[in-house]
Design brief:
By secondary structure, this protein is of the alpha/beta class. 39% of the residues lie in helices and 21% in strands. α3 packs parallel to α9 and α7 crosses α9. Keywords: Methyltransferase, Ribosome biogenesis, RNA-binding, rRNA processing, rRNA-binding, S-adenosyl-L-methionine, Transferase.
């Protein structure tokens, strides 16, 4: 049976403009300038920094660029091209996004934001026909349980230290795994900790970017499998 890696970006800082900010003058002005709908436009700290100053939990919100980079890193990998990788996004609002196997995200960030706006508005991209992205009507715990995987891993700064090559071998030996990686700029995911059976750190407690973690893991698995 071929290896299957199930990668979940947890508590990703991706959401539409929250209701309490939709009438903010700065956000409305930015939406008009970009031709966006302020109801469905993704919250982005780079565009909405001033308005976000009054937003609860602002430190962990408004970073769709992390999600974009995660999709670029994972879906352009050899694992994805070989059909050995499935990708999901669990957002800060608790929603789960499924990514169709074999699909590639837009390379351009602003095109990606437009795609997310369409997803927030219609629930899937495109709104009808063969979907590329869609919201799932499940919680992250229901998603992980449905995967029926014995090895459920969370990669986090304060986890048990492990070399990425050792982790790659563990996943390959098991025939695959569910691997959760934080998609927020700061903090940790309590829901992911509750679901994980093993919590590992790839840098012995040192903080790493989401992109660094994703690339290190995927490249190590590809190397161990002899793909690169």
């Amino acid at each position: 049976m071929p290896l299957m890696l199930k990668l979940i970006l947890v508590d990703a800082a991706l959401e539409p403009i929250p209701p309490e900010l939709r009438n903010d003058k700065g956000i409305v002005k930015t939406a008009r300038r970009l031709g966006r709908d302020p109801i469905y436009m993704p919250l982005d700290k780079a565009l909405h920094f001033k308005a976000m100053s009054k937003l609860k939990g602002k430190e962990s919100r408004g970073r769709p660029d992390i999600v974009h980079k995660f999709l670029l890193d994972s879906l352009n990998s050899l694992l994805a091209k070989r059909g050995m990788l499935t990708v999901y996004i669990h957002t800060v609002t608790g929603r789960v996004i499924e990514v169709a196997p074999g699909e590639r995200p837009p390379q351009n960030y602003f095109n990606f934001l437009g795609l997310m706006e369409q997803l927030f508005k219609h629930g899937s991209v495109p709104p009808s026909g063969k979907w590329l992205l869609r919201f799932m009507d499940v919680s992250i715990s229901e998603l992980v349980e449905s995967m029926n995987e014995s090895l459920i891993i969370l990669l986090e700064r304060d986890g048990e230290p492990i070399k990425v090559t050792e982790l790659a071998r563990l996943i390959i030996k098991n025939g695959g795994a569910v691997v959760m990686i934080g998609g927020m700029p700061k903090g940790s995911s309590e829901v992911a900790r509750a679901l994980a059976r093993r919590v590992f750190s790839l840098a012995n407690g040192e903080s790493l970017t989401t992109s660094h973690v994703v690339n290190s893991l995927i490249i190590s698995i590809e190397s161990e499998l002899g793909l690169i």
